[in-house]
Amino acid sequence: MKVYLDNNATTIVDPHVFAEMEPFFVQRYGNPNSLHLFASETHKPLKTAMEKIYAGINAPKEDSVVITSCATESNNWVFKSIFFEYILTGRKNHIIVSEVEHPSVIANAKFLEAHGCKVTYLPINSEGMIEAHTVRDFITPKTALVSIMWANNETGAIFPVQEIGNICAEAGVLFHTDAVQAVGKTPIDVQSFNVDYLTMSAHKFHGPKGVGALYIRKGKELTPLMHGGAQMGGLRSGTLNVAGIVGMGKAMEQAVDALDYEMHEIRELRDAFEDQLLEIEDTFVVTPREKRTPNTILISFRGIEGEAMLWDLNRAGIAASTGSACASEDLESNPVMEAIGAEADLAHTAIRFSLSRYTTKEELDYAIEIVREAVKRLRSISSSYAYTPKGHVSGLDSH
After folding, report:
1. End of a domain among 257, 292, 313?
2. What is the DSSP letter of 292?
3. Which of 4, 154, 257, 290 could cysteine-pair with 336, CB 3.0–4.6 Å?
4. For the whole model, what pTM was predicted?
């Protein structure tokens, strides 16, 4: 059996999404910016897709949703614009991010830092959560931007975005949230949240790879990252990825329709799977369930290197991960485990299991058996497990 439990890295394209995209590869392939019939055939599907994306995050028509290649590009756009508009001009010189942001945010923060910007890296607490009051504590008159992800890609922890947005609005500071892991897993409503910029990628909610979006609140326009044409109202030049946009629109529609299923049925599957994992001695899960997205588990198996566990799982046809796919070539300790203060031996043992609406109970039943076998085998050959202290670890639910 093959079991895919790495849905925070990417998801299968929903068959309905693929069917909606297919005509735009070989039948309706005109460039939308051309003036002939082939181009005009793409206009209505593009408009419909954009309407679905706007509706999926409840964005009003006066705000902008700009299509990009992915959330990494969108995140770069926000930070580079802040650099040009505020840091380079000397208007402001400070930004705030959490210490557990996606690599595309952390790398941009370090880029600004290397060019004279002061960066505050907010800590997480022992549960892997950001405490909103810490944002208020660090905002200064020189703060140009606060960037806090909606949901953490490693733990699934849902951060207090609404409260943070309110704090930023009161202080007159721009607020950006990377919502890549939140879309399709928790309700997104930019009219109820004080969010100036929001980024997402279609492939995280059963859409195609290579297409994402950046939401921009009216009056908070950014310096374009891409120049050369008039696409997307001149905000993001480049020939439109028609099939990708159509697919993203359909995927957003499907994600919204399936949200109740994700928040209840998938949560129940996740919780039952987690209960079985925690029956294994010396296992530790980060962040309480009620504070996480419904599909995610970050669990450590004391005495077992994460990469060794992945090797055994992969041999049995099970896909999981040791963390962000964007950092998978770096065999370093898990940054969230480090941030909550886990011991060094535990920081290298974390495995992330992430489900989707296509995950079945039968798949999870198979997965738990393989995990148990892998733990038994790997601990039997571990040179350190017998000598490590057992029991509860601060900030982690354990058995």
Report:
1. 257
2. B
3. 154
4. 0.91
